[in-house]
Amino acid sequence: MNPNPHTPAHTRRHALLGAAALGVVGWSAAARNAVAADRRPAPDPGPDLDPDADAVADRGRITVRRSGRYEVLALLDAHGPFPGRRQDEFPAADERDWARARRLDPAAFGPGDTWELDFRCYAIRRPGGRVTLVDTGVGPAGSPASDWAPVPGHLPEVLRAAGIARTDVEAVVLTHLHEDHYGWAVTPDGTPLFPDARYVIQRAEVAALSDDDSATTYVLAPLRRAGLLHQIDGRTRLLRGVTAVPAPGHTPGHQSVLVDGGREILITGDALVHAVQLADPAVPYRREKDQTTARTTRENLLARASAHRALLATAHLNHPFVRA
Ligand SMILES: [Zn+2]
């Protein structure tokens, strides 16, 4: 996601009036505790494009798939409308693309021309309970995403409901440095939220930032001070069967994460942001930094995922897992 940083904040806030009302609501401590201990499938988890669902819990905010020894948990941080008309964001999409996208992700089509989307993170839990977290959502009230995204997000509560302590997190992979992906990486006072984690970012992503970018000041400076910033170059093995895969275009150093413990799960980040780009991977998103590179990345990722029958784990579709 790349919200328009040049739109005056008050305009974006106006466009998002009502986003809080559409955000997912909190839940009781009893419900949280019940969920942590018991991941029964919810009676009605809603439409799911992956019939091999392992578990859906916590009112759909936590969805679990297994890849061999790993559990991959989709964690819903927030949900709301995007501040812009969907056809303005994907001007090259034709009627056929939109019709197919509507079948793939009907919940993305809000009233009028609105685009409804989830803001999701993923946790890769290995035997013993240590976790690699991929992306950290929109963050709390007052985070940099506040100007346009439905803050506050709920990631800390959702992690607790999933039985994940902050100190269980051994790595935080940021797919890229947009504010709806690094929101909970640090608190607004600059304290890393996951004190025992290394924060894994592509060096090219860091290098492309200007000194006054909010990512530089809000997230990178505190991580550097704490000695937790871990820059990588290109394709990098994170764990056995878990690999950071460069996926540039949306941003210069954007990366995805491939979990291959048997069934492949590709955590895409923003290599695709809307089902219309699943319907037709050639459709650009207006705010991609380099649309040509982004298209090549998306086509390659989706072709490979399809050939391997991988599940896609996306940040912004309204289903956490879909088949390529
Ligand atoms: Zn995004």
UniProtKB/TrEMBL annotation:
Keyword list, A-Z: Hydrolase, Metal-binding, Signal, Zinc
Ranges where the Metallo-beta-lactamase domain occurs: 118-316
Pfam families assigned: Lactamase_B
Signal peptide: 1-36
Listed InterPro entries: MBL_superfamily_lactonases (IPR051013), Metallo-B-lactamas (IPR001279), RibonucZ/Hydroxyglut_hydro (IPR036866), TAT_signal (IPR006311)
Disordered: annotated span: 36-56
Family in the record: Belongs to the metallo-beta-lactamase superfamily.
Protein name: MBL fold metallo-hydrolase
Lineage: Bacteria, Bacillati, Actinomycetota, Actinomycetes, Kitasatosporales
